[in-house]
Design goal:
- The strands form 4 sheets. The protein has a 5-stranded antiparallel sheet, with no helix packed on it. It has a 5-stranded mixed sheet with strand order 15-16-14-13-17.
- β10 and β11 form a beta hairpin.
- The protein contains 9 helices and 17 strands.
- By secondary structure, the protein is an alpha+beta fold.
Length: 328
């Protein structure tokens, strides 16, 4: 490993996990470095930087890093999403960066953090610190620690309370919709939620759609009829509150005793691997990106490498989505 990588690993306190390949380790270093550049660019003397300037900076850095280490280029390649814009948007949506009326970002260095094992997931820049994915971990709890629910703007409903609220009969009505036009989500399927649709209704409560892009309806069997509640799902895919309907799919699976699973495999004393059987809502996905590195590719949404001190937090967040945790 060359001196540049050694310095980056030392500065960010990122270590190779047991039997990790050199390519994987370099990829994790570069992903975290891009995140740190994004944050530190917003802590300049005037305390703000134009969004396009941040994106330009990260694009140039990514080009330079992949030219130096061409073996990691496939891990950042994508046809649809700009990696620099994606990183910046995660920080904006989760609260690390604050955007002013002039479309400039500044660091939200308020001293807040989320309590984790032996430290805090800190919101801002702090030295010394350990970097985990896009997040900043410090050893001490901050005096103004907040809950992950507050950061994610997440309600305090249990999954049982949540699904009961979603299928409150007063929200439903008869609609002139032919069942022949619909596909139904099957909560009993063992496949991932995105592959669990069929032309047949299998449960009394579920979700229906006319096409993969909508419109979508919550569906309830009432006596011998079906009643409907239309679902609005067309939101900006980069926003914190996007893909919220996945929470409903997970809750339906749990309700019908077929919960989505996540597996946690301990890799060594410092690292674990988490594999999730479906894609998360953005709230939980963005938080996970602050605790972990998507395995082998920046847009891998199913498998993550995490530092063990964040595992308890992640388990609580996944359990709140009614995802069942299994160890290996």
């Amino acid at each position: 490993m060359n001196k540049l990588l050694e310095a980056m690993a030392s500065d960010m306190n990122i270590h190779r996990y047991r039997n990790e390949t050199n390519t994987s380790f370099v990829y994790r270093l570069i992903l975290s470095a891009l995140g740190q550049w994004c944050l530190r660019s917003a802590s300049s003397p005037d305390d703000s930087i134009a969004k396009h300037a941040q994106t330009f900076l990260l694009n140039n850095l990514l080009d330079e890093y992949t030219n130096l280490f061409p073996e990691i280029r496939p891990m950042f390649e994508t046809d649809t999403v700009s990696v620099p814009v994606f990183i910046r948007r995660v920080y904006e949506e989760i609260g690390y960066l604050v955007t002013d009326k002039n479309n400039k970002n500044s660091i939200a260095n308020f001293g807040k953090g989320i309590e984790i094992d032996n430290g805090s997931l800190f919101f801002g820049i702090h030295e010394p610190a350990s970097i985990s994915g896009l997040g900043v971990i410090i050893e001490d709890n901050t005096p103004s620690s907040v809950s992950w629910r507050e950061v994610l703007i997440r309600d305090k409903l249990t999954w049982e309370q949540y699904i009961t609220k979603q299928f409150d009969i007063v929200l439903f009505e008869n609609r002139d919709i032919s069942t022949g036009e619909l596909q139904f989500f099957n909560p009993l399927s063992r496949s991932s939620p995105s592959s669990s649709w069929s032309n047949r209704l299998t449960t009394d409560w579920t979700v229906a759609r006319k096409t993969p892009n909508g419109p979508f309806y919550k569906v309830m069997k009432y006596h011998d009829d079906l009643i409907f509640c239309e679902e609005q799902q067309n939101v900006n895919p980069d926003e914190l509150i996007s893909y919220e309907y996945r929470r409903l799919y997970f809750a339906l699976r749990k309700f019908y005793n077929n919960p989505l699973n996540a597996k946690i495999k301990v890799l060594d004393d410092e690292h674990s691997e988490i594999t999730i059987g479906g894609h998360l809502p953005n709230r939980e996905y963005y938080l996970l990106l602050l605790c972990s590195w998507p395995d082998q590719h920046v847009f891998n949404k199913n498998k993550f490498i995490v530092k063990n001190q964040t595992v308890t937090l992640i388990e609580e967040v996944l359990n709140n989505l009614s995802i069942e945790i299994k160890g290996e």
